[in-house]
């Protein structure tokens, strides 16, 4: 059994055939993540419609922050997080124009909800790896995965020391920073994902693309595919309490 630990199913128009294709290659569970109220609502709907395969996470992505809607977005998450396996996707992104102070305030409020409801956190940390790690640790979060980690290796060492996870994506095929991070992280601290429907070198991903991530991790770490599958699946089951 494989678990895609991060997919934006709300961005896929025809979900049922996509789920069937994933199941055909061994993907039996998918953690569907949200980015704002609309996608959170759709994610929860998909989890209700496909309960044997889709498990939901609700979040407020830094790309979606609008200072006029922050309270509404966080209130929605507070009302629905108890029914989810994780808070996500949330975090910081220093490439977007949203002022850092606003991002920090939003992230801090969201992390407080994760503590309140004892939920793991799926962290977006583009160009903000050190600050994201500091905030997660300071909030008292016990379980966090730093999604598609491609940051400094010293920060990676710190977050691994704190017991946190990183996730591997199909970008392992071409991204040296991502390769370096996954090579350094022990397999027991790695989750595998697709971030579907993200395009990798112009190829649109789906949850079935998880077999590519699996093969890339196996090749990079020189560990048999079956061992990578078994360990990362066990990691995901424990992390998300599946």
- SSE string, helices as H and strands as E: EHEHEHEHEHEHEHEEEHH
CATH topology, by name, is TIM Barrel
The radius of gyration computed from the alpha-carbon positions, rounded to a whole number of angstroms, is 16 Å
Overall shape: globular
Kindly report the spatial arrangement of strands forming the biggest sheet: 1-2-3-4-5-6-7-8
From the 3D coordinates, which CATH architecture would you assign? Alpha-Beta Barrel
Distance, first to last CA: 13 Å
Instruction: Report the mean per-residue pLDDT as an integer.
Output: 98
Main sheet record: 8 strands, parallel
**What is the number of independent domains?**
1
CATH top level is Alpha Beta
Q: Which regions contain 5 or more consecutive residues with pLDDT less than 50?
A: none
Total strand count, please?
Answer: 10
Number of separate helices: 9
Structural class: alpha/beta
Going by CATH, what is the homologous superfamily? Metal-dependent hydrolases
Proportion of β residues?
15-25%
Helix percentage = 40-55%
Can you walk me through this structure?
It is a single chain. This protein is of the alpha/beta class. Helices cover 44% and strands 19% of the residues. The model has no long low-confidence stretch (mean pLDDT 98). The strands form two sheets. The chain has an eight-stranded parallel sheet with strand order 1-2-3-4-5-6-7-8, with helices on both faces. The chain is built from nine helices and ten strands. Helix 7 links the parallel strand 7 and strand 8. It has one domain: Metal-dependent hydrolases (TIM Barrel, Alpha-Beta Barrel), CATH 3.20.20.
């Amino acid at each position: 059994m494989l678990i895609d630990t991060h997919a934006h199913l709300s961005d896929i128009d025809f979900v049922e055939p996509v789920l069937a294709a994933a199941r055909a290659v061994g993907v039996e569970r998918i953690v569907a993540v949200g980015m704002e109220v609309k996608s959170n609502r759709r994610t929860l709907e998909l989890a209700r419609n496909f309960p044997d395969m889709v498990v939901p996470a609700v979040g407020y992505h830094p790309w979606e922050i609008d200072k006029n809607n922050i309270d509404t977005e966080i209130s929605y998450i507070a009302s629905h997080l108890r029914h989810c396996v994780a808070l996500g996707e949330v975090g910081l992104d220093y490439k977007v124009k949203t002022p850092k102070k606003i991002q920090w305030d939003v992230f801090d409020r969201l992390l407080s909800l994760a503590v309140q409801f004892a939920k793991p956190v799926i962290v977006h940390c583009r160009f903000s790896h050190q600050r994201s790690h500091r905030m997660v640790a300071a909030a008292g979060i016990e379980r966090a995965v730093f999604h598609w980690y491609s940051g400094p290796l010293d920060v990676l060492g710190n977050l691994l020391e704190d017991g946190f996870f990183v996730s591997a994506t199909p970008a392992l095929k071409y991204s040296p920073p991502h390769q370096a991070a996954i090579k350094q992280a022990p397999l027991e601290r790695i989750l595998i994902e697709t971030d579907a429907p993200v395009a990798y070198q112009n190829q649109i991903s789906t949850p079935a693309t998880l077999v590519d991530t699996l093969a890339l991790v196996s090749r990079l770490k020189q560990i048999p595919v079956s061992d990578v599958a078994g360990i990362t699946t066990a990691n995901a089951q424990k992390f998300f309490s599946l």
